[in-house]
Design a protein that fits this description.
Blueprint: E1 4-11, H1 16-25, E2 32-38, E3 45-49, E4 52-56, E5 59-68, H2 73-84, E6 93-99, H3 112-115
Antiparallel strand pairs: 1-5, 1-6, 2-5, 3-4
Helix pairs in contact: 1-2
């Protein structure tokens, strides 16, 4: 069985479309995308609401989950770092996990075969 890797990317929502296009261009065929709230080093921000300072602790982010086997993990990471980098706090994080198995419910295929878009 080929090695499968899950890559989670958490980043700014405004960078999502560009990242999605670049990942499609290198052959990433599927992803799951969540709209999430979170904070890291930046610990949120303060905004004015009706003249009163209001601290917003959780900021809107996008979380992508990608499983790759044929596209090199290093290539996905390189593209993500290139597209998402602004140099400012809040650019995001990339998490990498080994995947033991994947099962396609409709066909029962397992492993890398379950990731293929072939009928």
């Amino acid at each position: 069985m080929s090695k499968m890797t899950r890559i989670d990317i958490i980043t700014r929502p405004e960078k999502f479309e560009e990242l999605k296009q670049e990942l499609n261009d290198i052959g990433v065929t599927g992803m799951t995308v969540y709209q999430v709230l979170g904070c890291g080093i930046q610990k949120g921000k303060t905004e004015m609401y009706r003249g009163t300072p209001l601290e917003i602790n959780l900021l809107p982010k996008i979380k992508l989950e990608i499983i790759v086997s044929e596209v090199p993990v290093s290539k996905v990471i390189s593209i993500a770092k290139q597209v998402l980098y602004t140099g400012e706090i809040g650019d995001g994080k990339i998490f990498i996990y080994n995947v033991e198995n994947v099962i396609k419910i409709r066909t029962g295929e397992e492993g890398v075969l379950a990731l293929q878009n072939k009928e």
